[in-house]
Amino acid sequence: MKTVFITASGTEIGKTFVTQALIHQLRSQNQGVRALKPILTGLDKTDDIYNDAELLLKSLSVNICPENISRISPWRFKQPCSPDLAATLEGTSISFKELLAFCKKHDNSDTLLIEGIGGMMVPLDKTHTVLDWIIALRAPVLLIVGSYLGTLSHTLTALGMLKANLITVAGIVVNESLTQPIPAQETANIISRFSHNIPITVLPRVNKPEDAPDLLPLIKHYL
Ligand SMILES: Nc1ncnc2c1ncn2[C@@H]1O[C@H](COP(=O)(O)OP(=O)(O)OP(=O)(O)O)[C@@H](O)[C@H]1O
Ligand SMILES: [Mg+2]
């Protein structure tokens, strides 16, 4: 299995940006890559030019059309809230079993990047969170965290949950937040005191995902 699950300590931390960077870097090395954003919420928001599915298709150089969006993001909801609530508001629910089957169906010789949703403990239905999704897939995780004030506790809490559930953490990306009390590298250094041998990379603010530093060393053992 060459699946890597991209999750984060919270929402809007940089999962899509990092996934796009990884797609670009894998494609630059002529490596086959696919990407899924199985659950998409907030489709009614008008401030985004592209939603996550469209951004991933763009990076994959796949035509942005309704068919291709539904192929990588079958669960789509209008409200910008947790998947469980967004689905309930539309009178439906996300079948955890179908979600797992959908992710496993795409497992083949290409690298498969699965972008989760929100943070790790977001409810997907009445009983499952993103963490349960990760546990069930048994895929290594790339954890994206910020450098904002408060990130240390959020990051170490997320790492604690992953460790308690014996999840393999391939790497941590400290993605530079818009405001930060100390340089992101210093935040990374502090996290590394608690994360033992998990590789950590700092992603500075850059203009576009293609300008990101090399993130492949974080996942290379799992490809
Ligand atoms: N390193 C970076 N440099 C510049 N902009 C960034 C960087 N990381 C993220 N961004 C921008 O920050 C915003 C949030 O990032 P992104 O959409 O990747 O977060 P996310 O975790 O995928 O959010 P969501 O929980 O909504 O899926 C986006 O507008 C993205 O372009
Ligand atoms: Mg995203």
Task: Kindly summarize this structure in a few lines.
By secondary structure, this protein is α/β, with parallel strands linked by helices. It is built from nine helices and eight strands. The protein has helices at residues 15-28, 52-59, 66-72, 83-89, 96-105, 130-137, 151-164, 184-195, 216-219, and strands spanning 3-8, 33-36, 39-40, 75-76, 111-115, 141-146, 169-175, 200-203.
CATH C-level category:
Alpha Beta
CA-atom Rg in angstroms: 16 Å
Strand order of the largest sheet: 2-5-1-6-7-8
Question: What small molecules accompany the polymer chains?
Answer: adenosine-5'-triphosphate, magnesium ion
Q: CATH superfamily membership, which one?
A: P-loop containing nucleotide triphosphate hydrolases
Question: Strand fraction band?
Answer: 15-25%
Helix content percent band: 25-40%
SSE order: EHEEHHEHHEHEHEHEH
The name CATH uses for the topology is: Rossmann fold
Structural class: alpha/beta
Q: Helical segment tally?
A: 9
Distance between the termini: 8 Å
Number of strands: 8
CATH architecture annotation: 3-Layer(aba) Sandwich
Largest sheet: 6 strands, parallel
Describe the structure.
Helix 7 links the parallel strand 6 (141-146) and strand 7. This protein is of the alpha/beta class. The protein has one domain (3-222): Rossmann fold (3-Layer(aba) Sandwich), CATH 3.40.50. Helix 1 (15-28) packs parallel to helix 2 (52-59). The chain has a 6-stranded parallel sheet with strand order 2-5-1-6-7-8, sandwiched between helices. The mean pLDDT is 96. It is built from 9 helices and 8 strands. The chain starts with a strand and ends with a helix. Bound molecules: adenosine-5'-triphosphate and magnesium ion. Adenosine-5'-triphosphate binds next to helix 1.
